[in-house]
User: What shape does this take?
Amino acid sequence: MLDDVNVLKQRDPEDALGVAARLYEQVSYNCELVDAEHDGREIKDVVVAGMGGSALAADVVKAFLGDRLKVPFDVVKSYTLPKYVQHNTLVIASSHSGNTEETISCFTEAIEHRHNPQLAVISTGGTLQEMAAAHRIMYGKIPHDTQPRMGMIYNLRVLLKILIAYGLVTHDVYDELDSAADWLHHESDGWTKEMPTTHNYAKQLALTAVGKTPVFYAGNLMAPVAYKWKISWNENAKNVAFWNYYPEFNHNEFLGWTSHPVEKPFVVFDLVSEFEHPQILKRFALSDKLLSGRRPKANEVSLAGDTVMKQILWGCVLADFVSIYVGILNGVDPTQVDLIEKFKKELS
Assistant: This one.
């Protein structure tokens, strides 16, 4: 089915596969910040307010930069800011549409905050852009040509640009992204709809997973990649999916697999990076060994790339391809998220 051009056109009417095939282009997106001037105050901590795909880039930055980011970095996925926000906090509101209710709530709180924190906005437009313009707040625009879950790399580029503008990271981090563009293009060419299943890793993984509930595991470093697989599965394949990360998994969920029935309707994916701590790498294999016969054997996905950033990008783009193919096998439109939009409308 996945090699039938007519079936792909029928079940992917908005060409989500075409969008996935162009994701590598986002790696080179050059955002020009509006109202980029700031008062030069020392930034002692960063809070990024965002939801769903708009928060994912912040999760990636937190994992990717690690100890290169010299200040605490928090991601808030709710309506209110942490109580520790103060004058030397940088609050970044990130919303693809610019109209996300929770993010607007946090940003309004930041604007009215008695300690007057430093502020920045990331969006395609919407209310947040209007608020940024009205208050002369630093603003980075995301192109309006993709769904939030598939615009993570755009968001990542803009977020890094803002952190550079505040002197929190150096420009070589931005260059590290640029250097991955051609390589990612080459890698993702192997997952496109034109590539037959016999040579297409994304199609093969989709066929392994269809009809089952997936559970994605990664190490602490690649935890955002596992989360990306989960949300791509939810929105592209319209499937429930779950994720967790090592070593936390071994302290609780590990035992959750040991009860009956032995035959469980799940498919397990281990997203493995050689950049993880050596003890975490041991945990993947040992956990699978000790859970043999108690859960389905894990399908190991070895993240490709010779840098942490390349592996993150590779894993995130592959997640979109595989989940779109599962959506096609499920007979659903991978692009539409009508129920989420209906929910937002009724909630407001």
Q: What stands out?
A: The mean pLDDT is 94. The two ends are 41 Å apart (CA to CA). The longest strand covers residues 213-219.
